[in-house]
Amino acid sequence: MADADKLTEALKLHFGFDKFKGNQASIISSVLAGKDVFVVMPTGGGKSLCYQLPALMSDGTAIIISPLIALMKNQVDAIRQFCNDDGVAHFLNSSLGKSATEKVKNDVAAGRTKMLYVAPESLTKQSNIDFLRKVNISFYAVDEAHCISEWGHDFRPEYRRIRSIINEINRRPVIALTATATPKVQHDIQKNLCMVDADIYRSSFNRENLYYEVRPKTKDVDREIIRFIKNNSGKSGIIYCLSRKKVEELAQILKINDISALPYHAGMDPATRASNQDDFLMERVDVIVATIAFGMGIDKPDVRYVIHYDIPKSIEGYYQETGRGGRDGGEGVCIAYYSHKDVQKLDKLLQGKTPTEQEISRQLLMETANYAESSVCRRKFLLSYFGEKMEGDNCGNCDNCKNPKKKTEAKEELFELLSVVNELGEKYKRDYVISVLTGISSEEAKSRDHIQLDRFGILEEYDSKFISALIQQAVIAGYLRNDVENYGILKLTVQGKDFLKNPRSFMIVETTDFEDTDYESAGTSASGAADNVLLAILKDLRKSISRRLDVPPYVIVQDPTLEAMATTYPVTESEIACVTGMGEAKARKFGKEFIDLIARYVEENEIERPTDIKVRTVADKSKTKVYLIQGVDRKMDLEELADGKGLEFIELIEELEGIVEEGTRINIDYYMDEILEPECQEEILEYFHDSEEDNIEDAIQELGADYTEEEIRLMRIKFLSSWAG
After folding, report:
1. Torsion over CA of 388, 390, 396 and 401, rounded to 10 degrees?
2. Domain 210-401 = CATH 3.40.50.300
């Protein structure tokens, strides 16, 4: 083992630090002793130092295998700042030209280079293998090692070949490092790298300074994010989106709303991507909007907030991305927006994968959805997922702990759950266990004769949501184990078996209900509650207008629009035009009556209005709207209109619904006359005219025996359009 004083001296000499963080010193000692080492250390814990310092202290060159070119450049630049010789660190990847590659190889061959960063793809090139065989290699470092495992959040097949390439070049000690690894992923990494006897160092996953919150994803999500950023002006933040298109759109929206922001994703040209990253690191911009391609190895300690515009695909990915906030131990606010529709979209994207890949991805996605909907301590949930136990039930620094829900006794229900898992032989997944407990007589239950079990339907009075929450909290409490590597099979723990012998009190909280907050149907920002007194007055006004015009109230404005008014208190025509569901046409037609009422209410009650966030929209975002309006004006076939913009027909209907709901008149009579007889149209129009509530599900249930959903929704568009503009 390396002498402790010698290590501290080297740390001070090379990096200027007086002491190590956590178990860095022990890890470095193991590397210098020539051992294989496996490190699980959360983002911000100082993983890079664990191979950088021993590389500087060792003879030869350390080969550092890293997945991202941007990561390599960032770390090489950082190392060179601590050393007088730029040759001390290099990277070797596809971004280098012939002369630059030769310069790197010359420095390595001359013994000047202590660290050589290599992409796994570059490592497999025969020319590089031949070159590295001649190099005095001190050790190999495999960074972001979770990429090896199919159960990791960023599986890369080329990582599976690293061990065979190392054997071909020259066998030397290996240090594998990752910020996120469940026990299954850890086992995969060690097995694949042939380092099952490695020294293992696992740091706690508890980042106490990070605040975790999940918010419903509403139509006002852009406005809410803009308000949050402006309330945290001057602070650095990262916003993660799942698609490149959304990254570009959101970055543009932020910029035209006077927020210094830039996009970052793998589809950008390398020069622009690198420039945007540097602008963020050098604090020339405050916000980076990115896909998950951004952030791996980015050493920016003062990121004050991390926002997930879309729910991530896995807990591992979420944990690593949030871990980029507050790396200096200071403030780190982590906000994720969640909706069922996002989960459904992600599930649909799995269709092109193999059955095994689909099953793995669905298990990971399900765990993320469980996290979002859970009402238990967020920190406790995360730590449990990574195999770490948190004492107590309230961390005091997440939304669920700051706003705890009422607990209920579930001793008997837990006993029945554990009993059923036991009677099923610990061979079935959550959904099947739920179906047995609730008494759903599926073909599988019949074929396996499980409907004959005494406990079949024992919890039939509960819905699946309650039992899912029961299972989730039984896992967190240590009574059940969710065997993720076996596709989510539920197994009893020792503690669970003991509970069956000695039942005791078990208090649970129900999951958060996101049913009414889907961003396609909700309109109220989660950041502020509506003024219920004002909301009631606004509804009375709407009813008065509707009676005057002899139309249902929802034709004037819909409930989410009134709720948004009762939250933001618009008092000018330009302000009310920015309220979701109004638009300029409705603002001109009905706006004055609403803003006069709101202005009086604000004055009489001495209300201090919230800081106005008037979201300027991006011109490109309205191109689809303009295209559709012009297409309808030209009486284009709606199927052709959808194809022209690459939309599914139901997506076209959703776009048209949005257009008329904001008060723009469109005439689709030409299309409806082709598909429905006049008397059929009259019947549907009469239904909408007589209906007090704008509930499309009720309309489909009432009319669905005779008409398709598309026909009903198109007729609703025709009905609303007759009162638009």
Report:
1. 90
2. yes
